[in-house]
Amino acid sequence: MTAVTSRLSAVPLTGWIGMALIAINLFLFAFGPMLAPYGQEEIVGVPFDAPQPGHPLGFDQNGRDMLSRVLYGAQTSIGISLAAVCLSFAIGVPLGILAALRGGWLDLVLSRLVDTVMSIPVLISALVVLQALGSSLPVLIVTIACLDSTRVFRLARLVAQGINVMDYAEVARLRGEGLAWMIRREILPNVLPPLVAEFGMRFCFTFLFVAGLSFLGLGVQPPFADWGGMVRDNQQGILYGLYAPLFPAAAIALVTIGVNLTVDWMLSGRTTVQGDNR
Amino acid sequence: MLTLIAKRAVLGVFTLWLVSVLVFAGTEILPGDVAGAILGQSATPESLARLRAELGLDVPALQRYVEWLTGFLQGDMGRSMASGQPVAGLLWPRFWNTMSLAAYAGVIAVPLAVGLGIMAAALRGGIFDRVSNVAALAFVSLPEYFLGLLLVLWLSVKTGWLPSLADTYEGMGMAAWFRATTLPMLVLVMVTTAQILRMTRTTVLGVMDQPYVETAYLKGLRNGRVVLRHATPNAAAPIVNVVSFNIAYLITGVVLVEAVFNYNGLGRFMVDAVSRRDLPLVQAAAMIFGAVYVFLNMVADIAAIALNPRLRHPRGKEA
User: Membrane-spanning regions, if any (chain A) (predicted)?
Assistant: First the structure.
């Protein structure tokens, strides 16, 4: 118990801010639409009208309540990215660990494939796929997950390889443990910490990526509201000196800042520990 | 060393070929039907068949790939499906627009970021280090369009200093061009500077933990001299890698920035082509982006070999 409290007090201010931002956003993700005072398609005012009592963020380009739209958007924006990152880890981690443990042709084929996919910028690959399949939520999630899983694969393979040559892994193999046991009892518990940090970074990247695609008009399509698309829809407002597009953009920024601060703190703690072990 | 570089160049060409296969497979073999997409609701079986024949879609994929690749190598990128114009004529001017914007940003961002990164590492734990670290983290987290819109609001709409849209046209003067592209350049500089600064700092600090740096300190050398003469040269190869990685990022980050400022570059061109599902345009743009990316990575690897004595004389087969 004292260990926990002493570790908590060691968390720097930036770490606390990061975790608070994540907590707020998770809360919005779960309850955002319930908190929204108006419906996301409900036209309740004049387009681009200024903030006023009852409408603290003003109105969007169609006269809808901006606060309600941002609250609804939380679910779409965060939901899609979470789904994509979970899927990419579900693909990348097992394949990466398997490639590291098995080696041989499986490792060779998968690694070459991943290298090739990674030799093209993600945005360009995504655009090529979206051109062929059109943009819909399932296509978006699966495409991003597949492209992203290459990075996850690389990390999982690298970390698992490192663990696989450790003495305790060697001992387990000499005991005659099978592949499933090796993965469950030796590899997984040890690859977890770096993978958790990676999950944060991947989420951050995916989240920005989905928002970016929506901003380009190629991501989430109407009637779903997401933050990137809202920036795009309200972009013209900035030319009249209005803050309308900045609210969803700031919402995006707060999520990524929160995750980045948290990951930064987690990683800075981890590298020193790793340094000690070396 | 020359054979190592030659090997790397051959590998680069091979990667380019793989990229062409992926781009072609991505656009042709995925189940989306181009002819159906063009005709949309009005498609009848006859008109679909006619359009497929017109577009050459009735030929086997492999044959189409070979024809596409040989045409591409000879500078013939096919014709736009929407307008029928040759793709090459549409693409190259925009390519150079994008390259000039990226170069404008890169020339400012790279020296600035590497300098600041080394400074942050030298003053580790000091106030400059901490402030620059938090600022860089913030800039890395902010989406390009958020920064872009803020700059438009402050430097254009409120003050009228710079134009809010990056309108460029053929034959415009240098001064006018710089004025028009300064806002997008600033956004790109902020984002890449933050990235390079963070990574440069980490790289130099990694070298600072080495025993020979401790020796240099124990010899009584001053901090600045140790950082500049002992640590930085040894961090040069990884820094070159960081820089090229970020220039490659610049090439794609430019897509979003071009959309914010309505800049007539390759990124916006490709996005428009994707939303109109104009296959030849998308293929050509993807190939060009892929080629630039592969090329930059290759240059970075070669530079890293040239800068690192241990890579110049590799041990074992892995290097």
Answer: 13-31, 78-100, 120-147, 199-220, 240-263
Instruction: Please state which CATH class domain A12-34+56-268 belongs to.
Output: mainly alpha
Helix axes B61-73, B2-28, angle to 10 degrees: 130
Of A43, A76, A32, the residue nearest A226 (C-alpha): A76
Interface confidence: ipTM more than 0.95: no
Is residue A5 pLDDT above 70, yes or no? Answer: no
- The answer to whether A55 and A113 are in contact (CB under 8 A) is no
Which sequence spans correspond to the domains of chain A?
A: 12-34+56-268
Highest mean pLDDT, choosing among A131-135, A165-169, B310-314: A165-169
Question: Least CB-CB distance to B149: which of A119, A122, A245?
Answer: A245
d(CA A253, CA B141): 6
Q: Is the pLDDT of residue B189 over 60?
A: yes
- Chain A residues closer than 8 Å to B248 by CB: 121
The CATH number given to whatever domain includes residue B273 is 1.10.3720.10
Angle (CA) A235 A238 A241, round 5°: 165
At residue A278, the pLDDT reads 26
Min Cα separation A8/chain B (Å): 21
